[in-house]
Amino acid sequence: MNCFCKDDTMKALIEAKIMDPDGQLSRIDQLLDDYPEDARLHFLLGSNLIGTGRLIEGHGSLSRAVEIAPDFAIARFQLGLFQLTSGETDNALETFGRLDRLPDGHYLRRFVDGLRCLIRDDFPNAIDSLQQGIRINTENPPLNNDMRMLIDRCLPFMEQTLEDGEGSISETSLILKQFVDRRNMN
Q1: How much is the pLDDT for 11?
Q2: DSSP assignment, residue 87?
Q3: What is the pLDDT of residue 137?
Q4: Which residues contact 138 (CB under 8 A, 6 or more apart)?
Q5: Can you tell me the distance from the alpha carbon of 94 to that of 73, in angstroms, rounded to the nearest whole number?
């Protein structure tokens, strides 16, 4: 038995989310019964669960996707981003570490560089790296929207930091909380 769902089935599943978002979770669960080792299905399930506010289950599904396929870059990035926005900075940095193997010009590398700068309250370099990633990311346009939201949240703090000459550790926490709140509203 093949352990991966067919690509055309995956494509149809993704397209069906637009037409019937409420039925998405049950369709993924049904496919996972047949393909329990397909990391893509675990990733989709995790993303959908997080989108519906079922954070603990979503975290588990994203973690399972990365466990099955450690080099599944987008799943690893999303797991790290989830960890970061949940206040698990050390776990996020560890999760992001494997993405350093990607080519230097890869959009996820740029996004991770930006998030690492954000953790250090280095807003100018965070914004620069996130913008670089957006410019080169043609593979995953919705992710660009998420990174633009982060940039929008960073700009006021960058301006304040430049005026005050210093930053506050809580600024990054505030930005990430605002990002999660706004992302969950969309």
Answers
A1: 83
A2: T
A3: 97
A4: none
A5: 14
Between vectors from CA 99 to CA 65 and to CA 110, what angle results, nearest 5°? 125
Q: In whole angstroms, what is the distance from residue 99 CA to residue 182 CA?
A: 26
* pLDDT on residue 42: 96
Give every CB contact of residue 1 below 8 A, 6+ residues apart in sequence.
none
In whole angstroms, give the CA distance from residue 28 to residue 117: 35
Give the Cβ contact number of residue 71 at 10 Å.
12
Contact 79, 95 (CB under 8 A): yes
- Name the amino acid, one letter, at 9: T
pLDDT along the chain (186 residues), means of 10: 78 71 82 94 92 92 97 97 92 96 95 95 92 96 93 76 48 55 54
- Residue 72's CB is within 10 A of a number of other CB atoms, namely 19
Indicate the pTM of the whole model.
0.82
Task: Please state, in angstroms and rounded to a whole number, the distance separating the CA atoms of residues 66 and 51.
Answer: 18
How far, in Å, are 21, 103, 166, 171 from residue 41 at the CA level? 15, 26, 44, 35
Up-side HSE of residue 155: CA atoms within 13 Å toward CB?
6
